[in-house]
Amino acid sequence: MAPFNVHPSPTEESQTINIQLNYMKIVDVEETIEQVDLVIVYEMMWVDYRLKWDPKEFMGIEYIFVYPRRIWMPDISIYSNNGFQDERTEAQRIVKVDHNGSMLAVISASTEIVCSIDIRDMPFDTQECQLALGSYSVRAQVNLTLPFDLTAKDLIMALHLMVSNVTALAFILNILSESLPKTKNVPYLAQNVYVDLSLTLAAYLIAMIRRPIIWYIIKRWISPKEEKNNKA
Hints:
This protein has a single domain, classed as Distorted Sandwich (Acetylcholine Binding Protein, Chain: A). The protein contains two helices and twelve strands. Strand 1 and strand 2 form a beta hairpin. One of its GO terms (molecular function) is transmembrane signaling receptor activity. InterPro entries: Neur_chan_lig-bd, Neur_chan_lig-bd_sf, Neur_channel.
């Protein structure tokens, strides 16, 4: 394989970038500043035609692993966030390069997304937040997928959606979409939202549904203590 410049994108045409969310943990929901803290793990897949080779000419090697600095990577970012921290060590930041030019990177990060929160109906409220991803510099068609075609309940278990600092909330994850076809290979497709003439983004929709029964249990549990304090 001949050396190449890693800075320009593989083509001047619009790039197709596929992203699959494999894991998400909601760490905290900060209502006062309208912010949701997340830990996410997602796969990012794209094609670089410059990195193709014939395995027969290289001792049957069909794929290799390289560091990101050795190749071109799309600059996919999370929009409307207050912070982004890559949780991987330098040794873990590797990309799988297939002989046909297919690229696969697994990103693990913590992020803080801005989310409009309205708690006037608490404890019967439902909050919706968007985990939007896109590129600031590359013309890209961003496609989002979920790993399994499951019901909302199964999806919560499959993606390990959980919360540590917030009680009485259940979470449903979906992809912002309209009347788009669903297939077995790609159960959900994201509807692109155009930012301007050259940049697009796509978003996961996170619905946070409060479970009122837990609040009733908590209230009943602390009631005897309140009565004791009142008598005292």
